Fold this protein.
Amino acid sequence: MATQTEKCAGEAQSFERFGAAMLSGKVSDSAYLRFQSLAAYRQINAGETVPNMDLADRFVFLASGATKLVAEASGGREQVVAFHFADDLVSIPARGPHGYTLRALTDCDILVFPSLEFMQIAHTEPVTLGEVARRALHALWRCREKAVLLGRKTAQERIASFLIATARRIGSIERGACVLSLPMSRRDIADSLGLTTETVSRQFTDLRQMGLIATSGRSEVRLLDIAGLVARSGNFSIAA
Amino acid sequence: MATQTEKCAGEAQSFERFGAAMLSGKVSDSAYLRFQSLAAYRQINAGETVPNMDLADRFVFLASGATKLVAEASGGREQVVAFHFADDLVSIPARGPHGYTLRALTDCDILVFPSLEFMQIAHTEPVTLGEVARRALHALWRCREKAVLLGRKTAQERIASFLIATARRIGSIERGACVLSLPMSRRDIADSLGLTTETVSRQFTDLRQMGLIATSGRSEVRLLDIAGLVARSGNFSIAA
DNA sequence: CGTGAGCTTGAGGATATTCAAAACTAGTGG
DNA sequence: CCACTAGTTTTGAATATCCTCAAGCTCACG
């Protein structure tokens, strides 16, 4: 369970958070100052896209809020490649077979860095470079898990896996049950899981009727039976 | 077009390759020696699995040959998460929702490192640490492209995308056309693209009948019309 | 409250799967 | 060198899951 959407709303606080996450708290040395002068601080409103300044690769540090990284295929098809929350570092490729855009799910405070220069500074600061490597490997791990989900799981397994994985990141305990306040819409979930909104909806109702979850409003989901969800997530287990 | 399956077959050559790739050629300093004493050199025959020594995360450096990283979901369903070729560094998580195994597609020379200790040494060698970060980000980029493919593309688009992406890695030019000698079976391709062998087969025949590719034997594929393949790959383009 | 976007539900249809069998490779031994 | 075999690949027919299209409903916001 991670630190949630603490309102941050400020350039100073955003840099502080960046220093704590990427520089092990050293908020006064020369590397820090160089990172600071390289960064572009932005406040992004919910629904807006992080502007694509130049045509270079970028790192975006998310100081507060939640975002989605969207890849576009031909025919306007969109795939949500990842969701991000406070303290996440997002790597955004400039170009490729698919166009990438980072969109805010909630109001966000972000720091935007050009990748090349960022990595040059990082090379003088092993802690930061190690942090980049660690985070990249972790993102890779998440992406691989998603590949399994997209390649081999049924609609129901995808929803169950999504709920479990999301609970780990932004779930909170309330009266014994795990409660999620999802910042993303059904369409975002569908685009993330390779489904349609209709299918997502249907699976939510099915899980509800099975007594595994309860929903209230558009965004709140209570996980009533986590073991039951895991059993239906298609995850590999020794007992399978 | 990368350096292909140069037979390497030897512990010394494997370490040399590792040094060239990860230490910018410095094959005599202390970090190199520490990496060397940490590594386990192995020759793996085609079809065999890289043994899962202990229960820790591992890095595998592939000095020669080709491998696939397979994730297992429940019910024996397998997803090929990535293919690797000479000089690739593979990060293998110990545990998680899905079990990971690295299997050799051809005979391989590999170096196996425990991740934790590897990263500790890397922290004293910025070049290596930067290389880990660079490679992890590149692997992440590939995995994201795969997520788009698995989430939003038709069977035909998946095959076309696969052929184009694979040509970039191991394609060779022969009399004007690009020729692939695929080290993986139809089942491997299917498990990589989230399809069945039957569907892969059918799409190969379709592309053959369209005159976009020609095949001979099990493994050789000639790309006769790369522009045509790109047009059918579902990739985002401005003209879409 | 009223309005509109987002969510849910239903019926019909398409793509890829499943099941089954034939054809082809590539390796083996006569 | 050819026949033989085991495994892989290809082809075919029937089925299932998820998608598409369409309509009603709900929630969140003004």
